[in-house]
Amino acid sequence: MRYTFLGIMVLAVAFGAGWIVTWLDPYSIAGRVFTYLFKPLAVWFNNGILAPVLQNFEIYSVYHKNLMVAHILPAILAFVIIVAIGYFAWKRGRLFCNTICPVGTLLGEVSRFSFLKVQFDQNTCTRCGKCAAVCKSECIDIRNYAVDHTRCVSCFNCLDVCPESALSFRPTGKVQRLESVRPLAEKDDNPTTKHNTRRKLLITGLALLTGSRIYALKKEKLPENQKNLLKNKKDHPVAPPGAGNIKRFNDICTGCSLCVAACPTGVLQPALTEYGLNGFMQPHMDYTTYFCNYDCNKCGEVCPTGAILPLPLEEKQVTQMGKAVFVKQNCIVYTDGTVCGACSEHCPTKAVQMVPYKDGLRIPEVDQSICIGCGACEYPCPVPEPFKAIYVNGNAVHQKADKPQASEKQKVDIDEDFPF
Q: 89 and 96 in contact (C-beta within 8 Å)?
């Protein structure tokens, strides 16, 4: 079973199916658990208890923190996975680590060449079974006086409980075997039953992971009062700055969510259907949550795999992740004849300018050559999604935008809220 899982992972990496790896990679699992479970709990404790108490004593070094959460599904999946791993640990010790986890299997193969190993002294062993009972890795075979060193984690529980000191941790060598085998004091557990139980657990776990895809599908229905609005058509999602291109990003990213946790504006959110199956739970720029800060490049600094390359701030500020698209028919200046300039107000490069329209009104106009696709125009647009009057269409391959004129560039205050 464990070699099957390892083989699946190797084939997934070789053929670019990285989404399979993200489900069982322990580092990615840890990153998602800390980001989607522990971080919200820490923010809740900070905002609800710690900050108010300290402020009563006029201590303001700890203050209220905003938590940007676009979807509850990543938190649910992280919770399900950590509960499943906890259940395996409770019932079967290191079942996940040395049977399901591909990293555990790979490290187990390396441990075949360990210089020191737990070994039996067959002349003193009475086959009482105490060592096998406490073995958290289920790697002790009493019948054959053998220890499966590819699954042993060297916890030494077996050494502690052995009444005859028949087990020891010593340099690798040939183990002396008795010519006669003593009868077992107790009936061995049926191995078929053990394998069936393990198979049921694994099938249940896989069903949970596969079934989550169904819940990730989003249905967007057209309201009656928006029949005349045009639905936004995005050719590609917006990948983080430093991703280079979407295919490369999907192949390398492990969905660890460290960039999601580090993003100060919360614009990076785990993808559900945006990238398709290959990019499930990988971060994308979600402009319904917020927009990308013009003066920030933290995501590239924390990425452990190079999926998001660390860009100097000057290079990041001209990296075109996508292009803003203006839909005149959806704009409230056109539909309601009212004043609006939310998109132009927030644009850091002034790629969105307000130009004369009619009756003294002004309407947006986009210069895509200096647009970097940061979403500062899409986020504050008062028209509800998916009928935004201005939205960012992602570039499959990131481009280099022209530098805006120094007089046009403005710094965006990420704490400023537009009246809408």
A: yes
Crossing angle of helices 2-14 and 102-110, in 10° steps, is 110
Q: How many CB atoms lie within 10 A of CB 242?
A: 23
The predicted-structure confidence for 198-234, as pLDDT tens digits, reads as follows: 444 444 444 444 443 333 333 345 445 556 889 999 9
User: What integer pLDDT is reported at residue 374 of this predicted model?
Assistant: 95
Domains of the chain: 2-108 (no CATH), 115-184 (3.30.70.20), 225-400 (3.30.70.20)
Tens-digit pLDDT profile for residues 40-72: 888 889 888 888 888 888 888 888 887 777 678
pLDDT, one tens digit per residue, over 230-265 is 999 999 999 999 999 999 999 889 899 999 999 999
**Neighbouring residues of 3: CB distance < 8 A, sequence distance ≥ 6:** 105
Query: 3-state DSSP call for residue 328?
Result: helix
Cis peptide before 163 (omega within 30 of 0): no
φ, ψ dihedrals at 117, nearest 5°? -145, 155
d(CA 85, CA 97): 9
346 residue type, one letter? H
Separation CA 296–CA 316 (nearest Å): 8
Please name the residues in contact with 18: beta carbons below 8 A apart, sequence gap of 6 or more: 12, 250, 251, 252, 253, 254, 278
Q: Reduce the DSSP state of residue 239 to 3 states and report it.
A: coil
Banded model confidence at residue 393, pLDDT cuts 50, 70, 90: very high
Place of tokens 């069982």: 24
Residues 6+ away with beta carbon under 8 Å from 61: 54
pTM value surpassing 0.70: no
Q: Which residues pair with 352 in a beta bridge?
A: 366
For residue 210, give both structure tokens.
């596969």
Burial (Cβ within 10 Å: 0-12, 13-18, ≥19) of residue 177:
exposed
User: What is the reported pLDDT for 415?
Assistant: 54
